[in-house]
Amino acid sequence: MLIDGTTWSPNASGRLAGTDQRSGAGTFDVLGLSADGKTLIIVEAKGGGSQLSATGRIVGSDAVGNPVRVPQGSIDYLNDLLAKDKNLQDLFSSRPDIAKGLKDGTISIDYKVAKAPGDGTAAATDLPIDSTKIDLSFLGD
Questions:
Q1: How many CB atoms lie within 10 A of CB 9?
Q2: Do 1 and 19 form a contact (C-beta atoms < 8 A)?
Q3: What is the mean pLDDT of the chain?
Q4: 93: phi > 0 → left, psi -120 to 50 → alpha, else beta; which?
Q5: pLDDT tens digit string along 84-102?
Q6: Runs of H (alpha helix) within the chain
Q7: N or C terminus: fewer CB in 10 A for the chain?
Q8: Quick one: which H or E segment has residue 112?
Q9: Is the pLDDT of residue 7 over 60?
Q10: Residues ≥6 apart with Cβ < 8 Å to 123
């Protein structure tokens, strides 16, 4: 997790160093606020040869009750986790200014995938999402 320019990374136990927060299923891999406080950075981290999951996560069901899956890295995946990620909700509780900034537009969201293929290199690239489709209705009025 990156808060105000300070890096917080998951440790071997899966807990974010210095917190009781966990990474893993149902949470973003890395959350952060840029040093200037104007961008919430959300990262999907991939190691080795792993890719974003095409089967992603179940976000509901269709008219006949079949599960609806959306791929990791998509706008639907982002919106589902924005509303459900406990670590993000804890961040909003401890830092209501971030939730307020998202609602009033003074803080934007930057969604990325970071890849570390295991050869000592790493790179992050933007995920192609339409920022006008980010659903912040879970934040309320």
A1: 13
A2: yes
A3: 80
A4: alpha
A5: 988 888 888 888 999 999 9
A6: 75-84, 86-94, 96-104
A7: C
A8: strand 108-116
A9: no
A10: 114, 115
Report the 10 Å Cβ neighbour count for 123. 10
29: nearest Cα among 116, 94, 105, 104: 116
pTM equals 0.77
- What pLDDT, on a 0 to 100 scale, did the predictor assign at position 14? 41
Tokens encoding 48 = 């080795």
Of all residues in the chain, what percent carry a pLDDT higher than 70?
Answer: 83
Give the residues across from 42 on adjacent strands: 31, 111
Q: Is 73 exposed, middle or buried (0-12, 13-18, 19+ CB in 10 A)?
A: buried
Residue 30: Cβ-neighbour burial (10 angstroms; 0-12, 13-18, 19+): buried
Q: Is 94 helix (H, G, I), strand (E, B) or coil?
A: helix
Residue of 86, 81, 76, 89 lying closest to 130 (CA atoms): 76
